[in-house]
Amino acid sequence: MNPQASLLPFEVVIEVTSLCNFNCTGCFNNSSFAESGRGSHHSPEDTLRIKKIIDSIAEAGIKTVRFTGGEPLLRNDLPELFEYARQKKLNIRLNTNASLIDQPMADLIHHYVSDVLISFNGYDDESDEAWTRMKKSFSKKIKGLSFLNPSVLSIRAGTVLTSSNIVHLEKIFKQIQNSPLKQWEVYRPVTQSIVEPLKEEIGIVLDKLVKMSVEFKSVVKIANAIPFCLHDREVMNEICLGAIADDGHSRLIADPRGFLKPSYFINENLGSSDQVLDGWNRPFMKSMRELNFLPDECRACDYLLKCKGGSRFKAHSAFNNYRAPDPLKPLIKNI
Q1: Are 61 and 5 in contact (CB under 8 A)?
Q2: Which residues pair with 222 in a beta bridge?
């Protein structure tokens, strides 16, 4: 066993493609690896590149790999990559928009994948199309979802909170209730802008999530970094996962451009994507995990180990300083 096993990332996320069949308005990839376009189809050399990343994950002693994109189901070598990861004894997770799932694809997923995360940002074709900019995207997702068996794998829904869908969260909730989806998580929108779409609406969101959590019989969490001091801290602690999945605290992302980065959003180059341990042990990553970038005013908070000062990415985007406060923090009066 690797002697550093307790210090390893929980998972490595491989962005296996820049291609996508949707053109979502809030896609963070459009400001990173897809900024200059959605790329081209995949070559044997690209398959080998991803296998080298998988080798590095397994050699490091990390147990979980997540495939995402773009839309990973656009890769015609996905069965080969799944099989390769299985041979390395890795737990395989998948992020997808579900629109390309048919029975053969579902059979493949059932055979290899333990957890699927599906994006849901609307409750019908019209509302979902406003996000995806793809005709009948909601109907395609629902059809794809119908092929998946929740007794075989965990199927989760993820919703990026926007001013538009906050009004209709109950309608999204009803659609999820009537589907094979057993877990639902929502996300604070993350952009390069200092403007915060949720600054006036976080109280409404939390009240709705608390109510729906009772009905859903599984707590609906805000799953990305957000300052707990925006609202009653005990309520935030109950309804938020905190920053553990963000900013390099528990995982690395392998970018399609060939390097590792701390999160989907932070484009700090941590070195070659097939050198996972080297990237994880870079000084930047150690400083992030040791909370060296925590704002001074957060250090006395009882929830700092979970909240971690909110999003360090948003702090840097707003103030060009990872140690700055999350820009949501000063905008709303503490309760």
Answers
A1: yes
A2: 186, 240
Residue length of the chain: 335
The angle formed by the CA atoms of residues 34, 35 and 41, to the nearest 5 degrees, is 30
Which H or E element spans position 260?
strand 260-261
What's the whole-number mean pLDDT along residues 264-289?
95
DSSP 192-207: SSS--TTTTTHHHHHH
Q: Which of 15, 81, 71 shows the shortest CA–CA distance to 51?
A: 81
Q: How confident is the model at residue 332 (pLDDT cuts 50, 70, 90)?
A: very low
Residue 86 has pLDDT above 50, yes or no: yes
Report the distance separating Cα 55 and Cα 162, nearest Å.
38
Mean pLDDT in residue range 164-186: 89
Domain range 5-292, its CATH number among 3.30.160.40, 3.20.20.70, 3.40.50.720, 3.40.190.10: 3.20.20.70
Quick one: pLDDT at residue 179?
Answer: 86
Residue identified by tokens 């002697």 is 3
16, 89, 183, 210 from 153: Cα distances, Å: 21, 17, 12, 26
Q: How many Cα atoms sit within 13 Å of 189 on the Cβ side?
A: 24
Per-residue pLDDT reduced to its tens digit, 104-152: 999 999 999 999 999 999 999 999 999 898 999 999 999 999 999 999 9
Strand partners, 111: none
Whether residue 203 is preceded by a cis peptide bond, meaning omega within 30 degrees of 0, is: no
C-beta contacts of 43-48 below 8 A and 24+ residues apart:
47/77, 47/80, 47/81
At position 269, the amino acid (one-letter code) is: N
pLDDT digits (tens, 9 = 90+) for 177-228: 888 887 899 999 887 776 666 777 888 888 899 888 888 777 889 999 999 9
Asked if 130 contacts 169 with a C-beta cutoff of 8 angstroms, the reply is no
Phi, psi of 28 (to 5 degrees): -70, -20
At 3, the amino acid letter reads P
